[in-house]
Automatic annotation (TrEMBL):
GO terms for biological process: proteasome-mediated ubiquitin-dependent protein catabolic process; protein polyubiquitination. InterPro entries: 6-blade_b-propeller_TolB-like, TRIM-NHL_E3_ligases. It comes from the Bacteria. The lineage of its organism: Bacteria, Bacillati, Actinomycetota, Actinomycetes, Pseudonocardiales. Residues 80-105 are annotated as: Disordered. It comes from Pseudonocardia asaccharolytica DSM 44247 = NBRC 16224. This is NHL repeat-containing protein. GO terms for molecular function: ubiquitin protein ligase activity; zinc ion binding.
Amino acid sequence: MTVPELADHPADLSGGWVPDVWIGAPAPGGLALPAASPTMAWCYSPRGVHLDDDHLVMADSGNHRVLIWHGVPERDEQPADVVLGQPDGTTEGRAAGGRGPERGMNLPTGVLVHEGRLIVADAWHHRVLVWNEVPRESDRAPDLILGQPDPASIEPNRGTECSANTFYWPFGIDVVGGRFYVADTGNRRVLAWDGGIPETDRPADLVLGQPDPAAREENRGGAVAPNSFRWPHDIAGTDELLLIADAGNHRVLGWPQHPDADRDADVLLGQADMGSAVEWPYGPQRGDRLRFPYALALDSGRLAIGDTANNRILIWEGPFTDGRPADHVLGQPTMAANGENRWSGVDRDSLCWPYGLSLHGDRLAVADSGNNRVVLWRRQ
């Protein structure tokens, strides 16, 4: 594949995307470290975000909590309305500051609102939490727990062998094509349930990336392949398409039709072929390379990938299954650049390890983890 020279691209590679609202500590010119006592407006290393017409939901991962805004924030540093995982807006620490996992969290990552329900991947408690409605009061316990036998249990794989209803670091979640998908990162696989969010203890209908429900070796115990994962981390798609960010292999895999069984991917972004997992940590980058892509978002035919270790977001307009380079880049001045905050000061449009994305029409929410903030972008 021939990669266009940078001179072939317009001078402004952003495609009209501009930062609009900044949630988190203000830090023009320099990184703001998280406060010892958090607030409802500050965050520490957020790793997941969800945006729709009615909500902004942030996985404030470093503070082991989830923040919820009812209504999309309209001003910088706007405080959240609800906190989950902690007793109040100023407490931090794993498992609700030591109270226990019944209402607490440990490095929550994936967040999603689907058909009025809130779903949270409580990654280091090895479970997925579900609220039957988006809470309007803080410190509410979940209505449903997936991956553990009870609210107090937090062992990886339920303290036993890997199976079709256990998790080890579930980082990514989504409902795509009527299925509920979980990126079960520590087990190097993706699980799926037909019919949407399942009830507790129901085994997954599909195990993708491993030969059977008990297997959990990275890349199936061998070389990288079109049916293997190293660190599957995020999921996106449509009724016809499934995309999975295989962050540890520096690629995105795709299935143009949702698989009914474990099988090879047909679509590849970020690598030259299905047997490659090259990082390219040094030297100029390109619009068709990825380095630890932790985040995916797809909406209305537009694909955004959080190219995390390259400190940028790549955006494709229209078809992207031919492996062509991205159309736009956010956070960097060129497709070749990859410095943290452009090797300069923190600015509204700079990025440092963007770890989570949510694309909703002409709005894009970015969990800019290294800068301890979420930034809402809009397309002019």
